[in-house]
Amino acid sequence: xxxxxxxxxxxxxxxxxxxxxxxxxxxxxxxxxxxxxxxxxxxxxxxxxxxxxxxxxxxxxxxxxxxxxxxxxxxxxxxxxxxxxxxxxxxxxxxxxxxxxxxxxxxxxxxxxxxxxxxxxxxxxxxxxxxxxxxxxxxxxxxxxxxxxxxxxxxxxxxxxxxxxxxxxxxxxxxxxxxxxxxxxxxxxxxxxxxxxxxxxxxxxxxxxxxxxxxxxxxxxxxxxxxxxxxxxxxxxxxxxxxxxxxxxxxxxxxxxxxxxxxxxxxxxxxxxxxxxxxxxxxxxx
Length: 286
Hints:
This protein is α/β, with parallel strands linked by helices. The chain has one domain: Rossmann fold. 40% of the residues lie in helices and 17% in strands. It is built from 13 helices and 8 strands. It has an 8-stranded mixed beta sheet with strand order 1-2-4-3-5-6-7-8, sandwiched between helices.
């Protein structure tokens, strides 16, 4: 099988860096979270590439992709439109959309905006946006867990904190949270630190949180139900997002829906428990 190729694709006037592998007749797009980049799918790309064509982009603002200035450029519907353009330029009519964390949020939005481009939807450890928004009003425990979201609203301060403590942060939040710590090696640590030392990567990636809280959302998007078959995969040991955020998700999906829980698994689902995640993906996408 061919090795991973790295290419740049122009979408919406910016360039996305995309890791590609496989020659399958169906397209799978893997969308990473924060603070991650395409590499967070390293355990999934080669497995999926045996059956599919796999794209794992750095979303705008992250790693090697362009990082346009301005918070409004990081609204979820804007980022989702990048993925729509990526599919249209890929030669495929539609794609299986798989997202984790912020990539999961973009996946929820994408599936509501572009049902014609969404063959199936898989989300790992990211609640439906309406459930997340509701939790800020009704779930004190989740508000406490989401303290970092509010920190990220402060201009420049998070960037200053992170730029001097990248290695420490990744050790503590990735390896420190994971049950299977051997899945985040020293080599992985160096790759993550390097990605966030890219010029503009800290501000670009944090702007997802700022756009979430400081711009007006497209409410029509949130009122549309998901039309594609949907799988929610959830690591029950998530320290950032409570399991209760999965409850009631079926109300927002007008298609076959299922949820798979992984008991000893952290927020970093596809890194912590790659074998389980890969099995769920292959079973669902077949």
